[in-house]
Amino acid sequence: MRYVNKMRGSAVAVVVASAALAVAGCQPGAGGADTAEDGVTPSGAVSSPASSSTPDAPKPGSSGSGSSTPATSVSAPPSSAAAPGGPAATCSAGSLKATARQAAVRPPGTGTGAAVVEFTNVSARTCVLKGHPTVAGAANGSPELNVPLTVKPTGTAASVKVAPGGKAWVKLTFVQVQGEGDGYCVSGSAPVLYPTMVVGLPGSGAHQVALDDGQFAECDDTLTVTAVSTVMPS
Prior knowledge:
The chain has 1 helix and 12 strands; from the N terminus they run H-E-E-E-E-E-E-E-E-E-E-E-E. It is mostly beta strands. Strands 1, 2, 6, 8, 9 and 12 form a 6-stranded mixed beta sheet that branches. It has a 4-stranded antiparallel beta sheet with strand order 5-4-10-11, with no helix packed on it. The chain is elongated and about 50 Å long. The N and C termini lie far apart (about 160 Å).
């Protein structure tokens, strides 16, 4: 019985000693290491060895070697520019300066006979003039009092380009006044005298002009007009 009790006492002592060793091995610093076996840290988290980490999957645009390379963008081809020499815009009224002088070639008589109206492009861009002019005798006062004259177009109308500083012309040929002094009209009507006339071109405004010498004297409020041209008439 003593033997049995001694053996039981020894067994209990062995169990107690083993438990003490197990507790000691779990304490920080035990055995000179802070991390227990099987990768269990003191806080209970599982640490993964560096060698067992899984590399990140290649990202879009990556070469797959671990270094990210920006994806190459593909740009659309540039749109073609407008071809040079395209159609020019119609000359605006503000882009033109108009002057008038008595023509060298005119019907015989004592009136104005004929006048050449010159249009100068004072803008910085090439523009277009076209067509036959309209003509009105300018009254002294409101434009509503201007007297439209009957025009008889001659020649073919065509659009003409006028470069900056360039010029274009129209010629106005009136029904001529005859005789001396106040003169007379062959038709029997009285001659009319206008200090200025208003000359317009399609899309390019109306321009009031005065002769460089004298006034416009005409009969019957009727005249013949040429189409605008870059060739100066005589």
